[in-house]
Automatic annotation (TrEMBL):
This protein's name: RNase H type-1 domain-containing protein
Lineage: Eukaryota, Fungi, Dikarya, Ascomycota, Pezizomycotina
Organism: Purpureocillium lilacinum (Paecilomyces lilacinus)
Length: 248
């Protein structure tokens, strides 16, 4: 309730009681959590008791820890978290230093190290190395962007968009929609599906030209697959190598 605008002595409804109730619930949960956190520092309690105070089932927290541990096991060896969870090397012993100064203090393991120890060690997945062609390919663009676009549009007049022509005879016509993906990924998948359709309708001696208006995607299709959509690039290269006469 709040004072009215016309009459200050009259109380009117503010129509925000539902918002106040929501804020009240959030504040109650926050106060309950902060109070239990302060109690944990003053009087340590078992973890199960802390989970009970926060109203979070312990099985949910345990499943999240297992998932995070599996994520740690699947990281590349050069990842920063791998160095933090790897066992520390033994300290070197120097005869010129007294032994009492070389005694290491056993520090408690961090939460990250304890989570990593939930699952046994396993072989980490190896990243697919970049593939480089034995023959040096020509540059994709040798002129200015305007001259390249003009030449491409002149060439495109002989190759109608959406038409599949073989020996001056139309074979198929139409277009389709790709699945939801980013622009870079969609162009890689589109090039792969277009090459698959062209190979299905062509012979082994047919020359296939794949046109991509994205210089980065064209570079990846020619032999340097990017980390994004790497599967589409490698499949494209395998199909192009199997057919033999594919130009990007």
């Amino acid at each position: 309730m709040a004072p009215g605008t016309g009459n200050a002595t009259r109380l009117v409804s503010t129509q925000i009681k539902h918002l106040v109730d929501r804020f009240d619930a959030v504040l109650r949960h926050a106060i309950r959590r902060s109070s239990s956190h302060l109690e944990d520092h003053a009087h340590p309690r078992p973890p199960s008791r802390s989970w009970y105070s926060t109203r979070i089932p312990s099985i949910l927290l345990e499943s999240q820890r297992i998932r995070f541990s599996a994520r740690l096991k699947s990281l590349d060896v050069r990842h920063l978290l791998v160095a933090r969870t790897s066992p520390k090397p033994a300290r070197a012993y120097h005869s010129s230093i007294k032994r009492k100064f070389l005694v290491e203090r056993r520090s408690q393991k961090t939460r990250l190290e304890r989570t990593n120890a939930l699952l046994p060690n396993c072989a980490r997945p190896a990243m697919l190395p970049r593939q480089y062609s034995d023959a040096e390919a020509g540059p994709l663009q040798t002129a200015t962007k305007a001259d390249t676009a003009e030449g491409f549009l002149a060439w495109l007049k002989d190759a109608a968009i959406g038409n599949l022509i073989r020996n001056e005879q139309p074979i198929a016509h139409g277009s389709g929609r790709l699945g939801p993906a980013e622009v870079f990924d969609a162009e890689a998948v589109g090039a792969l599906e277009g090459l698959q359709a062209a190979i299905a309708a062509a012979t082994n001696t047919t020359s296939i030209v794949v046109c991509i208006d994205n210089l980065a995607v064209a570079t990846c299709l020619r032999g340097n697959p990017a980390d994004s959509s790497q599967d589409a690039f490698t499949k494209f290269q395998d199909l192009a190598k199997a057919h033999g006469d594919v130009e990007v």
